[in-house]
Specification:
Strand 10 and strand 11 form a beta hairpin. The protein has 33 helices and 24 strands. By secondary structure, it is an alpha/beta fold. Strands 7-10-11-4-1-12-13-17-18 form a 9-stranded mixed sheet, with helices on both faces. It has a 6-stranded parallel sheet with strand order 21-20-19-22-23-24, sandwiched between helices. It has a 3-stranded antiparallel sheet with strand order 14-16-15. It has 3 domains: 99 residues, no CATH class; 377 residues, Rossmann fold (3-Layer(aba) Sandwich); 325 residues, Glycogen Phosphorylase B (Rossmann fold, 3-Layer(aba) Sandwich), CATH 3.40.50. The structure holds ligand 26W.
């Protein structure tokens, strides 16, 4: 039998301290006499890492031996946040460590907060991938994540004079969680040409040659599961110049500078995460990143498969590859290329393997987010892949032609190649054609993709190829770590922490909804979490907010479709109403703090304008003596995972107010409700399923429905379009210059007044304001409010990412 921990074991606080001291003095080569919090973090992280590594090695060895079907999750983004708290949770021994650190003179929270976020993602898609890794390990699935090791993650946001400024995020200074594997490398080719010839048997062979080679080096990070010894692997590829002959000739011939330049050019590939989260810009470097990562990952996956010496037809029984959006779609032609050009399989046999191997998850229906690459760029960078894509397309179009002989338009509509100038490769179509299952991320979204962007493909393949897997979140991070007191309260009633592994057990706390003690404690926890956020706000923004106010929070990427502008216009409206009231009437008003947070893509001017407006409104409202605590407006700088862990547990209300039909799912909506906050939201994404679970009485829905959006947009142009009068009041106040120079906000106002209000801000404004008033009234009745929040928490079991991963495993991956 395995001894659970064979090396560097600690069971007591003294042993733990010994480990920490050893690491500080030897691994970090620091003196104990000037040990600061950062060194304490380093020592603690390394002590826990030692224990993680043992389990990690064991898991990998056992998987190599048993050789089960593995899941590979290809995602350009993994928004992991901090690792130490999670490692402590999964290893256990956090209490021991807390005591030990105390003796060394440190507080656990301070030590944990020394760690920099691993911010290798933009938003929802990247954080979902991180939750999935947690669930895959917890559920004991043999699974690997594959991504790029960006030197710079998502930029750090600073607010200067109310404007967003981007600062580079160099996060790798000290990262104890990654292990460079200098022996695990893959050479990846770009550019070059394709030579075709007949071999002796008369078969045509293609050789892609004379390209530029860049080397991928693997960096691995352990992914521990909760309540299990399984520790999976996240493999990140870093690019460097290859040390092929080419380099050496240059070097030896004295072209030192040129060879250094080559080096830097190669390293550029994995240098920086693209900060756009829904605008495709068609940059060559981005396509290079995608191919570099797909080629390295597939080489690695195929290499592992070949060790088992199984027949190629077994490949899909050993390997499931999930494509997180279209970013890894090149993996499809790459696998086809490996199988036909390198392994000598026939086209049809290879293609059947490819289709059985891949599954594709779509995360957005926004047309501007759908990836397309120009054919000339493709031809230049990946000439062989372009040929393969043309062949895939040809076969597919023949099939369509045979089956839909009467619909001549169909061929042009479903072709992978868009006949524009220049021609474009539609990556989403390639992903659909190359996969055996396509899924959306919430019910409404999965229905929408079938009736809009993939409508014709439903005709071609039938509806069964398309399915839904509603998103989920890991309760380990988003309940237990972010809100330890709530987790403890729940555990005290359920007789332990089993609910962290089976979140449906939460339904049992509904029995305590009338229990006085429980209610009191639940309410105290919410208050304490609000105090914590108030304290943070004071430190970060220098503004005091009253924790007894209603905390209204909208934190997510800044985007017009998410409608932070609707929220801030609503705040302005509230302010104008407050200004009009008599001091007597003001006394009856429910005090509120409106928190905002989120990054705008650096080139997205409209989103940046909204940030500026929020800050300008804050500057006016927060300093208005008439208003005092009745209304505060806070923009929380640099929203990220670790800040979310403070922000999410502190909401009374959170806002998920996208134009109906535009937000694929949303996942923070789930996090807020799980932590005892209610939602104001549109009938969009997972809000709809949250409503189904918690009940209509426990959520504040408003606004137009997705089926009406098209007609409303049409009406803005072809009927008389009247701006909602309440919204007009807001615009008048902006135009009067009450929030600074009106000219700065004219494009924002005009997008609604002049340019058709694409996101239906005016159409939904009244309904939004009315619903906010309902919320003010409801909040005054604290007892009923509390009942709503407790009931909601108890009904959130469905939204665990564990449920979600089980669905993928069963419906898409066929793994146990
Ligand atoms: C090519 C530029 C680009 C980059 C990222 C386009 C699109 C993306 C992502 C698909 C954007 C994204 O994060 N989508 C979000 O995915 C979440 C997880 O499924 C959903 O909860 C969000 O609703 C969706 O916006």
């Amino acid at each position: 039998a395995w001894k659970k921990f064979s090396a560097t074991e600690f069971k007591t606080k003294d042993e733990f301290e010994g480990e920490v001291v050893k690491h500080i003095e030897t691994t970090l080569a620091r003196s104990l006499f000037n040990c600061d919090e950062l060194a304490a973090y380093g020592g603690t992280a390394l002590a826990f890492r030692d224990r993680l590594v043992i389990e990690w090695n064991r898991t990998q060895q056992q998987q190599s031996f048993a050789d089960p079907k593995r899941v590979y999750y290809l995602s350009l983004e993994f928004l992991m946040g901090r690792a130490l708290d999670n490692a402590m949770l999964n290893v256990g021994m956090k209490d021991v460590a807390k005591e030990g650190l105390g003796e060394l003179g440190f507080r656990m929270e301070d030590v944990i907060s020394q760690e920099r976020d691993a911010a290798l993602g933009n938003g929802g898609l990247g954080r979902l991938a991180a939750c999935f890794l947690d669930s895959l390990a917890t559920l004991n699935f043999p699974a690997w994540g594959y991504a790029l090791r960006y030197k710079y993650g998502i930029f750090k946001q600073e607010i200067v004079d109310g404007y967003q400024v981007e600062v580079p995020d160099y996060w790798l200074d000290f990262n104890p969680w990654e292990f460079p594997r200098h022996d695990v490398t893959v050479d990846v080719q770009f550019y070059g040409n394709v030579r075709k010839y007949m071999d002796e048997s008369g078969k045509q062979v293609s050789v892609w040659e004379n390209g530029e080679i860049v080397t991928a080096v693997a960096y691995d990070a352990p992914i521990p599961g909760y309540g299990t010894r399984t520790t999976n692997n996240l493999r990140l590829w870093s690019s460097k110049a290859s040390h092929g002959e080419f380099d050496f000739t240059k070097f030896n011939s004295g072209e030192y500078e040129a060879s250094v330049a080559d080096q830097q050019r190669a390293e550029t590939i994995s240098a920086v995460l693209y900060p756009n989260d829904s605008l495709e810009r068609g940059k060559e470097l981005r396509l290079k990143q995608q191919y570099f990562w797909c080629a390295a990952s597939l080489f690695d996956i195929v290499r592992r498969f070949k060790k088992s010496r199984k027949a190629w037809k077994e490949f899909p029984n050993q390997v499931a590859i999930q494509l997180n959006d279209t970013h890894p779609t090149l993996a499809i032609p790459e696998l086809q290329r490996i199988l036909i050009d390198q392994e000598g399989l026939e086209w049809d046999e290879a293609w059947s393997i490819v289709q059985k191997t891949f599954g594709y998850t779509n995360h957005t229906v926004l047309p501007e987010a759908l990836e397309k690459w120009s054919v000339p760029l493709f031809q230049h960078l990946l000439p062989r892949h372009l040929q393969i894509i043309y062949d895939i397309n040809l076969n597919f179009l023949h099939y369509v032609e045979r089956n839909f002989p009467k619909d001549r338009e169909m061929l042009g509509r479903v072709s992978i190649i868009e006949e524009s100038n220049p021609k474009m490769v539609r990556m989403a179509y390639l992903a659909v054609i190359g996969s055996h299952k396509v899924n959306g991320v919430a019910e409404l979204h999965s229905d929408l993709i079938k009736t809009t962007i993939f409508k014709d493909f439903v005709k071609v393949y039938g509806p069964d190829k398309f399915t839904n897997v509603t998103n989920g979140i890991t309760p380990r991070r988003w309940l237990h770590q972010a809100n330890p007191r709530l987790s403890e309260l729940i555990a005290s009633k359920l007789g332990g922490y089993d609910f962290l592994r089976d979140l449906t057990l939460l339904h049992k706390i509904e029995a305590y909804v009338d229990d006085k003690e429980f209610r009191k404690e639940f309410q105290e926890i919410k208050y304490a979490n609000k105090v914590r956020l108030a304290k943070y706000t004071k430190e970060a923004n220098g503004i005091s907010v009253n924790p007894s106010s209603l905390f209204d929070i909208q934190v997510k990427r800044m985007h017009e479709y998410k409608r932070q502008q609707l929220n801030i216009f609503g705040v302005i409206y509230r302010y104008l109403e407050l200004k009009d009231m008599s001091p007597e009437d003001r006394k009856k008003v429910q005090p509120r703090v409106s928190f905002f947070g989120g990054k705008a893509a650096p080139g997205y001017w409209m989103a940046k304008t909204v940030i500026h407006l929020i800050n300008q409104v804050g500057a006016v409202v927060n300093n208005d003596k008439d208003i005092g605590d009745l209304l505060k407006v806070i923009f929380l700088e640099d929203y990220n995972v670790s800040k979310a862990e403070i922000i999410v547990p502190a909401s009374d209300i959170s806002e998920h107010i996208s134009t109906a039909g535009t937000e694929a799912s949303g996942t923070s909506n789930m996090k807020f409700v799980l932590n005892g906050g209610l939602v104001i939201g549109t009938c969009d994404g997972a809000n709809i399923e949250i409503t189904r679970e918690v009940g209509e009485d426990n959520i504040f829905l408003f606004g137009n429905l997705s089926e009406d959006v098209e007609d409303l947009r049409h009406a803005h142009f072809y009927s008389e379009f009247h701006i909602d009068p309440m919204l007009q009041r807001v615009f008048d106040a902006i135009k009067e210059g009450r929030f600074g120079d009106a000219g700065q906000f004219s494009a924002l106002v005009n997008s609604i007044v002049e340019h058709g209000d694409y996101y239906l801000v005016s159409d939904d404004f009244k309904s939004y304001i009315d619903t906010q008033k309902l919320i003010d009234e409801a909040y005054k009745d604290q007892e009923t409010w509390l009942t709503k929040t407790i009931t909601s928490v108890s009904r959130m079991g469905f939204f665990s990412s564990d449920r979600c991963i089980d669905e993928y495993a069963e419906m898409i991956w066929n793994v146990e």
